[in-house]
Specification:
The longest helix is centred in the last third of the chain and has 16 residues. A hairpin with a 6-residue loop joins strand 1 and strand 2. The protein is mainly alpha-helical. The chain is globular and about 45 Å long. The termini are far apart. It is 57% helix and 6% strand. It has a domain of 106 residues: Intergrase catalytic core (hpI Integrase, Chain A, Orthogonal Bundle).
Length: 171
């Protein structure tokens, strides 16, 4: 799958997908990033465009390795996701089109730039089982909003509580 995406979408678009699902950031916060914002870093410090909150986002080992490869020939002041037209970064519309193409290649019917953020949340929940952390991360008013946002059903919530340490376990 990775080779198909790289061949048909290009490394920038593959990296955009990888970056989005590993950070959970909004596309409006991802696109303006510069190489120096992520190169040789363990975390990304941003001020979110939507909420104006300062965020510190951990860069996991998989993403660090990919950042190093992706930015190897780039300058610190280059945009992480440069546009081929002019001296700026790609637009959210262009990011959407590129992610749609990638989804089509791997057989996913419905996707959007926000799908990266939701996918991050879903997998974070499946791994850690904590909606409260995600509620705070996404700046949601309640965990029920977060649950809906990441597509967790009540059945999955019960199963995850059963499987997590300290969860209810009835024999």
């Amino acid at each position: 799958m990775q080779n198909s995406l790289l061949r048909y979408c290009g490394y920038r678009d593959y990296f955009l997908f990888l970056f989005g699902i590993n950070t959970g950031l909004r596309i409006s916060d991802i696109l303006p990033l510069l190489v120096k914002d992520v190169r040789n870093k363990t975390q990304i410090i941003i001020t979110e465009k939507k909420t104006k909150k300062i965020r510190s986002i951990y860069i996991n080992e998989i993403l660090k390795e990919e950042v190093n490869k992706y930015t190897a020939s780039m300058k610190d002041d280059d945009f992480l996701f440069p546009s081929k037209k002019g001296n700026s970064y790609i637009t959210p519309t262009q990011a959407y089109r590129r992610l749609q193409k990638a989804a089509e290649i791997v057989g996913i019917e419905h996707t959007a730039t926000h799908s990266l953020r939701k996918t991050f949340g879903y997998h974070h929940y499946k791994k850690h089982g904590n909606l409260t952390i995600l509620k705070d991360f996404f700046s949601h008013a309640s965990t029920s909003i977060t649950k809906r946002y990441i597509g967790i059903t009540d059945d999955e919530l019960e199963i995850n509580n059963y499987e997590q340490p300290g969860g209810t376990q009835e024999w």
